[in-house]
């Protein structure tokens, strides 16, 4: 094998990197769905299907047929061919496993679970959605694997060149845990190993450079203390019974006394105690508020030490959009911190130092790690670690396993990592659902009696017995789930709907869930409108002016939790009106840059008031069909102009675009939204040319103007997929569910879509009943992190 090379070392960058772009070739995550009814087969089909398990030529031919049908990717077949060429004596069952394991990566899974595959073989390929016509189908996986037993498959997963049970050079790794067997491409096995090892080291305080035994559990010798950046510092900061230390005092300065358990205070205390921490919670539960206070707490503890320098803290998010949003909210929160009172707790006059040492700038993970063009390797890695003491990552649910591993590899051993995110949101499109996997036990907390006692001393709050578990694992002690939404109270339909949807399937029956949902939808909440489409007009009305008349009082007169007025819901007419009515007149673009920047800022801000989200990309109910349809509707309203061809494939004034790949040359990030505007052409007086306006965080140059010809990876964004909307929020969000159920429609997708709504939500069912079906299907991502 010429291209495989690894010494199995977590810091090793020479891991097996066959088919480097597997993660980029993504489609849709795996969903729990009804298996398609196997198509009746002939004996001949069954015979040929069975032969594929014992004959490599037959297996390759079968893969060929699967690829032709779109059930398997070219990439997966190429891998199998390559392996078969390198090792002609490889068992066909091993090759089949390799094809399926590779295929899972494109669907968000880190590995192939053999047991699950044998239980529901048709989930292993990208079969068409239920209801699609399957004429002359190739053999289904369920037919191919019909007589195969787990023992036979396990027995075939051996070949000195291709598969091993752990460290080594083989391209495949087989992992056994109890009765479960998983097959990995080595690179992904290595990612999991590194993650386990690095996180476990942060929880125990050990240096990280070894390989974990497989399977790995987050068990640490009893009696091991949790590891903080400076364990002795935290110990000192606790004080004792007679003299409370700086930690409890600072927590009391940051948090007002409450009658109920303040989870935000708990989160700060736990995150300060460990070198690894997670703060998870739904929308508006105060993740940002909490992390700002945590940073103030950490700096206070640091500056209270004699001659200490402030901690070097960096904030990051997976996308430019998420980074910009955190930037916005964090700046406001920092100004509210009681820095003087905190500084008083330190012996020295450190108020100014404390204020200055809490960062407000948020960068993307790609920028932080130093992305380099044309390679997946970063400038910062184990050999060239990041220069920081604390790293906070927001929207961590969007971080895939490869990126999370890159972060942990580049993090100095003594540095502290805090992940923020909503564990219930859709995971990244790429393989791995790291935050969700790590937070599997967060709901019940599982704090040990020792942690509970420490927390009570630190925060003055006793923990209810429900959250205490003598069997709690070390990872549990580093996670806090925020449980109270401060944005959506009991009078908010958005909040109530999110809660009703988010109940896991083990907590209630499908029927109970449907009843709970329908109760919320019928209640008449002021911020929620449920629309079932019966004709085209209702959808047109929604995208033009937001169907504000469907909300109580037309959406007038509402205030937010601080008493500030909430603007009524709008549609796309709003930003197009701003575009048309506020256009600077008669001035050259260069000489009147401020006026053009103000105009563009207002248009962009107006655009963010409304966004239509949908589940699919293709077809009339997907992004492609909806974009064209909405553009034509707006043209009919005389809000946009252009031929059918222009509206579908060209550039026109008012076209909103979404950047779909980072472009470092243009300083544009995946997720950025720009609006196309006509500005005076400097070369031809009296004429205009189109430029796309993107917002920046630079107050001097608030708009980046880009010529359309320079934008290669953008798409129209009248409709945006829920996947792409992660990390964004819109005043009025409309979530459109297609008329037929599709594997991509799941509870996580609906939850993520509706929680993008800040003030108003219109939930659109193209056909009644789809919502009920979607919310009872859960994303099941396969990875080894589940075994923690
Ligand atoms: N303990 C609290 N008491 C009252 N209001 C709070 C509290 N914590 C947060 N808030 C307010 O609730 C709103 C949401 O808080 P924040 O932005 O911190 O939540 P989040 O979880 O980060 O939200 P998002 O869903 O946007 O990620 C903010 O207006 C904030 O000021």
UniProtKB/TrEMBL annotation:
Classification of source organism: Bacteria, Pseudomonadati, Pseudomonadota, Gammaproteobacteria, Oceanospirillales
Enzyme Commission identifier(s): 5.6.2.3
Any Pfam family hit: AAA_19
Reactions the enzyme catalyzes: ATP + H2O = ADP + phosphate + H(+)
Signal peptide per UniProt: none
UvrD-like helicase C-terminal domain: residues covered: 717-764
Note: In the RecBCD complex, RecB has a slow 3'-5' helicase, an exonuclease activity and loads RecA onto ssDNA, RecD has a fast 5'-3' helicase activity, while RecC stimulates the ATPase and processivity of the RecB helicase and contributes to recognition of the Chi site.
Composition bias, Basic and acidic residues: 27-36
Nuclease is among the record's keywords: yes
Assembly and oligomerization: Heterotrimer of RecB, RecC and RecD. All subunits contribute to DNA-binding.
Composition skew (Polar residues), residue ranges: 1-16
Alphabetized UniProt keyword annotations: ATP-binding, DNA damage, DNA repair, DNA-binding, Exonuclease, Helicase, Hydrolase, Isomerase, Nuclease, Nucleotide-binding
NCBIfam families: recD (TIGR01447)
Residue ranges annotated for the RecBCD enzyme subunit RecD N-terminal domain, each copy included: 69-177
Family according to the record: Belongs to the RecD family.
SUPFAM superfamilies, A to Z: P-loop containing nucleoside triphosphate hydrolases
MF (Gene Ontology): exodeoxyribonuclease V activity
UniProt xrefs under InterPro entries: Coronavir_polyprotein_1ab, P-loop_NTPase, RecD, RecD_N, RecD_N_sf, UvrD-like_helicase_C
Gene: recD
UniProt binding sites for ATP: 281-288
Stated role: A helicase/nuclease that prepares dsDNA breaks (DSB) for recombinational DNA repair. Binds to DSBs and unwinds DNA via a highly rapid and processive ATP-dependent bidirectional helicase activity. Unwinds dsDNA until it encounters a Chi (crossover hotspot instigator) sequence from the 3' direction. Cuts ssDNA a few nucleotides 3' to the Chi site. The properties and activities of the enzyme are changed at Chi. The Chi-altered holoenzyme produces a long 3'-ssDNA overhang and facilitates RecA-binding to the ssDNA for homologous DNA recombination and repair.
Region (Disordered): 1-45
Protein name (record): RecBCD enzyme subunit RecD
